[in-house]
């Protein structure tokens, strides 16, 4: 008996978060530091003839007249130019000035030699441009490069990066796709970039040497590889006897391998910055914060070389001409009219996006100033209070991802120097008296305890825990160990 087949149609409700082109433009501009914004604005001026430099005129009557003409045909009825009419009947071109809160004319902004932040990123992007990748792979690679920390390591999991790409950038990527692209980045120079921990960082460097020298399995580099891959925990604790016994290594070969491993670079990103940081690039602060003797704090955006923007007068006049002769327009004239509308839409969208960027940056920085007011008044790092992205997000009403984008690669010039916005963020800790303290301050106290210890008998983590407890900080031993490691301070027996 023949079996029949049937199709079943079902409905499923699914919520998908997508960003409009205008929202994507705002996000991209928000991520740009001051120097890159200058380049982006000048590029847009060259690309879009409907956009030009200059202040907006105070009166907008001519635009209103053009709008009225666009809304009605000669017989008073509506026309088939609804899309253009919709554009022209919106509020007139906004009187927006990019340098509204800028410094007074002629006043110079302090510039200091640029370190590794931008150079590090640009150097990796140059290496990326030399690879034959699909557009999707290139987008993933750029995001991964932007996710590397100052040491050149990737501290985030690929699962979390996959989620970030989907939510904030609108790019779908599986962890395996990210893994494949990360392998490409790990092939960049210097060796060790893109590693997810110190072990992987050191192994990448050894593997690079093995590939370059094509050594036999009995060579020294393979002994180093075995130590790091099979005895990494013992290596970090300097349990040499256990390593020798486990790998059956002779004393001389073992000591030579350890010596070579210690020559490897645990911070490839930092070394890259030291190499290229002494170039002609400079840190240009995105904000200028001036603190006065009376306690007044003034915030301004540094819009240095960013010109004021407005809609092109030539374009608005052409639109006016087309609307006056609308009844006798040819097909070519209608196409020209649509071209004008598209360019004006793009120009208006860009002006609005830059304005939104300015407002978001100012709102975020003002919230940081409010939360860290004692520091901006005194310049004392110990006065920085615990602050995370969520604190600023709640104060501004903005999304946490937006605060993250603003704080990334942005700098502020203060009376006490130029600081990265990341400098002001740190976790908090509540003492037994209920006082909330910055982790930065606790690390400072911990370092003081270690600096003042008897170097012949350095304090163990348990003893440091007791010391901090006596000072009013009942922190767990594992937390003390974590803070010590973050400050690159070795264990007690290695501090003798």
Task: Please explain how this structure is put together.
- With 496 residues, this protein is an alpha+beta fold.
- It folds into four domains: 235 residues, no CATH class; 83 residues; 64 residues, no CATH class; 67 residues, Arc Repressor Mutant, subunit A.
- Helix content is 52%, strand content 7%.
- The chain contains 22 helices and ten strands.
- Strands 5-4-7-8 form a four-stranded mixed beta sheet, with helices on one face.
- A hairpin with a 5-residue loop joins strand 9 and strand 10.
- Helix 3 runs antiparallel to helix 4 and helix 10 crosses helix 13.
- The radius of gyration is 30 Å and the shape is globular.
Strand count, sense and barrel status of the largest sheet are: 4 strands, mixed
Strand content: 5-15%
Strand order of the largest sheet: 5-4-7-8
Radius of gyration: 30 Å
How is the topology of this model organized?
Elements: H1 21-31, H2 34-47, E1 51-53, H3 61-71, H4 82-88, E2 112-113, H5 117-129, H6 135-147, H7 158-169, H8 175-185, H9 198-213, H10 220-230, H11 232-236, H12 240-247, H13 251-261, H14 268-276, E3 282-283, E4 287-291, E5 297-301, E6 309-311, H15 313-324, H16 331-371, H17 373-378, H18 389-396, H19 400-407, E7 411-414, E8 417-420, E9 428-430, E10 436-438, H20 439-451, H21 461-470, H22 477-486
Parallel strand pairs: 4-7
Antiparallel strand pairs: 1-6, 2-3, 4-5, 7-8, 9-10
């Amino acid at each position: 008996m023949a079996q029949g087949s049937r199709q079943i149609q079902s409905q499923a409700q699914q919520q998908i978060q997508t960003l409009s082109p205008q929202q994507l433009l705002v996000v991209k501009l928000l991520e740009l530091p001051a120097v890159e914004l200058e380049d982006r604005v000048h590029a847009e001026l060259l690309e879009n003839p409907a956009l030009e430099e200059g202040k907006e005129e105070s009166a907008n009557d001519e635009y209103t007249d053009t709008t009225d003409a666009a809304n009605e045909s000669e017989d008073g009825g509506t026309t088939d130019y609804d899309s253009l009419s919709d554009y022209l009947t919106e509020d007139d071109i906004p009187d927006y000035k990019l340098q509204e809160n800028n410094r007074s004319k002629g006043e110079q902004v302090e510039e200091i030699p640029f370190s590794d932040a931008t150079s590090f990123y640009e150097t990796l992007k140059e290496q990326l441009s030399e690879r034959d990748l699909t557009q999707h792979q290139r987008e993933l690679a750029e995001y991964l490069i932007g996710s590397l920390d100052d040491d050149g390591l990737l501290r985030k999991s690929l699962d979390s990066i996959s989620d970030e790409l989907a939510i904030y950038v609108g790019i779908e990527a599986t962890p395996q796709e990210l893994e494949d692209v990360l392998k490409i980045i790990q092939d960049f120079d210097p060796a060790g970039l893109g590693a997810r921990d110190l072990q992987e960082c050191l192994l990448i460097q050894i593997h690079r040497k093995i590939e370059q020298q094509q050594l036999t399995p009995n060579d020294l580099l393979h002994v180093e590889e075995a130590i790091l891959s099979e005895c990494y925990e013992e290596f970090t604790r300097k349990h040499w006897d256990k390593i020798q016994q486990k790998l059956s290594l002779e004393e001389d070969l073992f000591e030579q391998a350890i010596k070579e491993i210690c020559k490897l670079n645990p911070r490839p990103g930092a070394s890259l910055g030291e190499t290229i940081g002494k170039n002609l690039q400079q840190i240009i602060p995105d904000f200028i914060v001036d603190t006065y003797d009376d306690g007044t704090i003034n915030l301004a955006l540094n819009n240095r070389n960013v010109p004021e923007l407005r809609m092109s007068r030539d374009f608005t006049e052409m639109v006016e001409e087309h609307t006056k002769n609308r009844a006798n327009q040819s097909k070519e004239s209608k196409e020209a009219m649509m071209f004008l509308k598209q360019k004006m839409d793009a120009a208006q969208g860009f002006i609005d996006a830059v304005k939104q960027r300015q407002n978001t940056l100012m709102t975020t920085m003002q919230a940081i100033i409010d939360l860290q007011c004692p520091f901006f008044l005194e310049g004392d790092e110990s006065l920085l209070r615990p602050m995370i992205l969520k604190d600023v997000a709640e104060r501004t009403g903005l999304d946490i991802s937006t605060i993250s984008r603003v704080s990334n690669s942005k700098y502020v010039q203060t009376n006490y120097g130029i600081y990265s916005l990341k400098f002001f963020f740190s976790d908090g800790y509540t003492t037994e008296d209920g006082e909330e303290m910055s982790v930065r301050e606790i690390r400072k106290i911990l370092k003081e305890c270690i600096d003042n210890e008897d170097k012949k008998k350095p304090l163990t983590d348990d003893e440091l825990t007791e010391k901090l407890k006596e000072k009013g900080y009942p922190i767990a031993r594992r937390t003390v160990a974590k803070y010590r490691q973050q400050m690159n301070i070795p264990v007690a027996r290695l501090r003798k």
